[in-house]
């Protein structure tokens, strides 16, 4: 059974990696789907985000992960992949309020599409890509939130 784990991953955080690892134990294949939202003031290009995720899954020796990017609606990507299962992480009630609407919209657009939610590991419940981007913009220490390889890429980007 395959599951799609979609997101912006700009950049990949330890919170995302925790979800990817847990999904890889539960499913035959995890399709990490990067939203191609380059016009949205992204820090990393989609290609850079792909490379970062590839390196992180190699470091963790995960073998059942594939990495894709998609434009437009997630449901169209899910149809193209012939997969009717999407997974998202939930850090708390704010995520839940946002995610439940997206999940309902998606299942309305694509009948039978199910979204499952994994509660985030409490150690990462305060970690977000937007927080990492903000810390990085001020050349702050992001090491508690991202893997060493992501930290290296961030430091290259911001020259520190
Ligand atoms: O990491 P993010 O930014 O929280 O991920 C959000 C994502 C990419 C899962 C969501 O924005 C998405 O699926 N966008 C694609 C557009 C879409 O399908 N919208 C319909 C639901 S309202």
Automatic annotation (TrEMBL):
Alphabetized UniProt keyword annotations: ATP-binding, Coenzyme A biosynthesis, Cytoplasm, Magnesium, Nucleotide-binding, Nucleotidyltransferase, Transferase
Catalytic reaction equation(s): (R)-4'-phosphopantetheine + ATP + H(+) = 3'-dephospho-CoA + diphosphate
Ligand binding (ATP): 8-9, 16, 89-91, 99, 124-130
Cytidyltransferase-like domain boundaries: 4-134
Listed EC numbers: 2.7.7.3
Listed cofactors: Mg(2+)
Binding-site positions, substrate: 8, 40, 74, 88
Enzyme class name: transferase
Stored Pfam families: CTP_transf_like (PF01467)
Protein family according to the UniProt entry: Belongs to the bacterial CoaD family.
Function: Reversibly transfers an adenylyl group from ATP to 4'-phosphopantetheine, yielding dephospho-CoA (dPCoA) and pyrophosphate.
PANTHER family for the chain: PHOSPHOPANTETHEINE ADENYLYLTRANSFERASE (PTHR21342:SF1)
Subunit composition and interactions: Homohexamer.
Annotated protein name in UniProt: Phosphopantetheine adenylyltransferase
Recorded name of the encoding gene: coaD
């Amino acid at each position: 059974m395959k599951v799609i784990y979609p997101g912006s991953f700009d950049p990949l955080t330890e919170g995302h990696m925790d979800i990817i690892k847990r999904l890889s134990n539960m499913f035959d294949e995890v399709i990490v789907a990067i939203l191609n939202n380059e016009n949205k003031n992204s820090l990393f290009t989609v290609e850079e985000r792909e490379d970062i995720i590839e390196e992180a899954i190699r470091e963790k020796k995960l073998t059942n992960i594939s990495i894709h990017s998609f434009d437009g609606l997630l449901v169209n990507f899910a149809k193209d992949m012939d997969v009717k299962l999407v997974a998202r992480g939930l850090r708390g009630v704010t995520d839940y309020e946002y995610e439940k609407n997206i999940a309902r919209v998606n299942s309305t657009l694509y009948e039978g599409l199910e979204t499952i939610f994994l509660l985030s590991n409490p150690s990462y419940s305060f970690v977000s890509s937007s927080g990492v981007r903000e810390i990085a913009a001020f050349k702050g220490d992001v090491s508690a939130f991202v893997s060493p390889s992501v930290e290296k890429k961030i430091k290259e980007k911001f020259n520190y």
